[in-house]
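During the second half of the funding period, the structural biology subgroup turned its attention to how the target accommodates small molecules. The most pressing case was iron/sulfur cluster, which had performed well in the primary screen but for which no bound structure existed. We therefore specified the complex as follows and requested a full 3D prediction, including the ligand pose.
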Amino acid sequence: MIQFDNKQLEKLHSFLDEFKNCTICPRNCAVNRFEERGYCNSGVDISVSTICVHTGEEPVVIGDKGICNIFFSRCNLQCIYCQNCQISSVTEEVVDYHFKIEEIVDMIIPFLNDGVGAVGFVSPSHVVPIVKMIVTALKMKGYSPVFVYNTNAYEKVETIRGLDDYIDLFLPDFKYADNALAEAYSEAADYPEIALAAIQEMKRLKGTTLMVNEHGYATSGVIVRHLILPNQAENSLEVLRRLAIEITPRITVSLMSQYYPTYKAIGHPELGRQISPREYEAVQAEMERLGLCNGWWQDFESPEFYRPDFTSEQPFE
Ligand code: SF4
């Protein structure tokens, strides 16, 4: 197994000090996570549900070999339609393995040696010190892949600022422009303002232009994702408008149609179906009208393809 000397281990473990009075995310629990738990129900361990090479992200992100994604257990946003609910709940049992830093690095390095060019942190908002620890540990061993921060965007500006030296590519969602919807679906009434400020900071750090290498794969920048929800096309239209007006129409946007009802959305009066072609077309048209021309939209058939099972060793196969 990979080894670190005592000085290196001391540096790596010092990142955990941030957990002693945890105000990492906008929940601002101010708890000592060595002793108690806040909203995210997480301690200080490297708590992960799966590490795998994922080919289901945008082509510019995955390159030709996929991205090595680390899916953290639990989340600071509790969306009732979460498509990763097997790993994200803070109130129910989730798929959750605890690792030492040496073990995590040991699992990632073979993928990098195999030519995978990016490491992605998925649902990282409540474990930012661990993200910094893993990035630092990989760099100590001479590895510098593209580090991707795949977040729900319910993040504090100062936390994002603190990631500048660790993260190359930010991949934030922008889920809601409607406060009541954000509260009803994700227990976060202040989500629209918080997420926009976080995305603004990501843009300030990495710029508007998505940087790519000679093969066309992203090396630095910001890609904003938006998942269209059924019966909520108006929210999607407003999300796009706020991105165009408050961030910039030149920001890269990935429009996602892969919604399907799962978790608490099954049988839900609004969320209990897939999106309709009409809803999808209305959102696409607004994206064009606003001049948000950097980015992509998923094929309408996408719900058939995104059905991960995190109890399996290969959740996406
Ligand atoms: S990371 Fe967890 S404990 Fe810390 S402020 Fe956010 S929800 Fe609370």
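Two results from this model are relevant to the next phase. The mean pLDDT is 94. The chain is about 30% helix and 15% strand.
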